[in-house]
User: Which sequence fits this backbone?
């Protein structure tokens, strides 16, 4: 038996393409991306392609979140930092905007204040050092995932 979170990306990739894999990653790793406090009051619903964007614009999507109504205003103010965390996790601009839907998320914790710490972008020297460490990884998807993790770790550390 394998955990469902391990099989979701493979199943959705065939049906939904790149966005299906991104949504599966967001769903399966939401708490790791957002942290336990923020993940307790929010839940990702779906990724939506921006229909108003020109066809030649980037593929970044809109992430629809279910959010506790008491936390909705605070989350609007934290949107830039939340997007930064999500995109740092993927290693590219996967999400460009949040769309909040008020409703009870799973296991809401009332009365919490969220403090999403900013993640700084790695410098060129740090990027080069990261990719030198990943040169021996043969699997491209594993290398991309490790690079995303490395950027987050570098971004959380002090320069």
Assistant:
């Amino acid at each position: 038996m394998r955990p469902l979170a391990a099989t979701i990306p493979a199943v959705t990739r065939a049906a939904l393409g790149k966005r299906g894999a991104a949504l599966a990653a967001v769903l399966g790793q939401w708490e790791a991306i957002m942290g336990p406090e923020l993940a307790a009051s929010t839940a990702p619903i779906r990724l939506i392609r921006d229909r108003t964007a020109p066809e030649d614009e980037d593929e970044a999507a809109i992430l629809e979140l279910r959010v506790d109504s008491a936390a909705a205003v605070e989350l609007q103010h934290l949107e830039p930092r939340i997007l930064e965390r999500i995109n740092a996790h993927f290693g590219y601009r996967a999400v460009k905007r949040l769309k909040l839907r008020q409703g009870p998320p799973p296991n809401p914790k009332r009365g919490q204040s969220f403090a999403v710490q900013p993640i700084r972008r790695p410098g060129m020297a740090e990027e080069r050092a990261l990719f030198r460490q990943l040169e021996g990884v043969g699997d491209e998807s594993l290398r991309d995932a490790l690079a995303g993790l490395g950027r987050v770790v570098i971004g959380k550390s002090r320069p």
Remarks:
- Strands lie at 42-49, 61-67, 95-102.
- The mean pLDDT is 76.
- Residues 48 and 157 are 32 Å apart (CA to CA).
